[in-house]
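Duplicate of #3305? Posting structure anyway:
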């Protein structure tokens, strides 16, 4: 009731409206020291891109939550207590390369992004317990010791150069997303990845065998980088996994019962060109993508019964055999090289979307296209229908 009485007062309502407009207008600004001193609406700033030496702590806006120290030359040592406690997001530019001392980073910080030149040891006790997201730049390549990363951390990203062994106990049990950079190529030790991990991404250079009991039991998304080309041992992929992506160099046979029954999305890279053995693809699979190099016959009973989306890459040019495509399939995409006659009754009646590539140049025989089809895309070389 008190709120309505206040709101009905036109003078107060106008004043509130003016303050809201100023918060909207001045919430994000780009300033240096001289322009900041002349700025009249400091108290409305919540998002500040700062160029030049830091101001005194008491000169920061009272509601500042995001600070971007983006100046190319910024490499100033930050004393403990110099940054306001209101900060929740802090980003350093690419030249910054100073040690963080205990008390340097404010206690309410949730997101910390450090630029490319940073390559200092991060000491235990320097990262606040509020931190949930931490991103290192490209040059960082220091050992991260146990107890350095706070138990609040959920997302951790390493940059291009990081290539250090991650010891058990280093990564906190709160971590859900972990991304390694390009040069990381270390053996993943047992118990080094916490069971809380849901998403794991390896960079381009990673090419290590992943033994059983290495990957955590709650992992749902796993991405291998460009150079990974190792046999996947049985029982090495957890039963929680739903999305698996291989990089371009992967070209190994996937034996039966290697892929978990939880898997729904599988993507092969451009070099993969192996026969797919029967029972190697789990029935849980709904989306399957082959890379540009795949050009193998797909026999009947190879593809799982729940598959809905199937994509062939550039080089695929094999006859589609009767009963080779499951009745669950709704979307089928052929690459540019595909140029085979589609036999009658070879496409399932569940199919709604069908796409042919540039080289396809065949007419369609009676009963070759199912009545369920809603979208048909053909390349520009077709001169017969």
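Output from current build:
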């Amino acid at each position: 009731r008190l709120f309505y009485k206040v709101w009905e007062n036109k003078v107060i309502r106008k004043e509130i409206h003016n303050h809201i407009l100023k918060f909207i207008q001045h919430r994000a600004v780009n300033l240096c020291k001289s322009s900041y001193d002349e700025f009249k609406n400091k108290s409305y700033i919540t998002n500040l891109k700062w160029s030049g030496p830091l101001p005194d702590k008491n000169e920061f806006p009272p509601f500042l939550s995001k600070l971007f120290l983006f100046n190319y030359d910024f490499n100033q040592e930050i004393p403990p207590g110099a940054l306001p406690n209101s900060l929740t997001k802090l980003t350093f530019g690419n030249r910054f390369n100073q040690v963080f001392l205990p008390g340097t980073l404010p206690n309410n910080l949730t997101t910390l992004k450090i630029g490319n030149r940073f390559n200092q040891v991060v000491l235990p006790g320097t990262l606040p317990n509020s931190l949930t997201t931490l991103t290192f730049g490209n040059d960082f390549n220091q050992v991260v010791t146990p107890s350095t990363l706070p138990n609040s951390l959920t997302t951790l990203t390493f940059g291009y150069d990081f290539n250090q062994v991650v010891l058990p106990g280093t990564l906190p049990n709160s971590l859900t997303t972990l991304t390694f950079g390009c040069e990381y190529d270390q053996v993943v030790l047992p118990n080094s990845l916490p069971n809380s991990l849901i998403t794991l991404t390896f960079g381009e250079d990673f090419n290590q065998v992943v033994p059983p009991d290495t990957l955590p039991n709650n992992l749902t998304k796993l991405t291998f980088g460009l150079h990974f080309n190792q046999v996947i041992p049985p029982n090495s992929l957890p039963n929680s996994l739903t999305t698996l992506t291989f990089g371009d160099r992967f070209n190994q046979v996937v034996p039966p019962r290697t892929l978990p029954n939880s898997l729904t999305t599988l993507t092969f890279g451009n070099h993969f060109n192996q026969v797919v053995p029967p029972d190697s693809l789990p029935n849980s699979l709904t989306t399957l993508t082959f890379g540009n190099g795949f050009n193998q016959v797909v026999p009947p009973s190879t593809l799982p019964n729940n598959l809905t989306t199937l994509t062939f890459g550039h080089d695929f040019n094999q006859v589609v055999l009767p009963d080779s495509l499951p009745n669950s399939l709704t979307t089928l995409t052929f690459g540019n090289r595909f140029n085979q006659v589609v036999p009658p009754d070879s496409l399932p009646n569940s199919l709604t979307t069908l796409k042919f590539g540039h080289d396809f140049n065949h007419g369609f025989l009676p009963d070759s296209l199912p009545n369920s089809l809603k979208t048909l895309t053909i390349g520009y070389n077709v001169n017969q229908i």
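Confirmed duplicate; merging threads. The chain is about 10% helix and 15% strand. The first strand starts at residue 28 and ends at 32.
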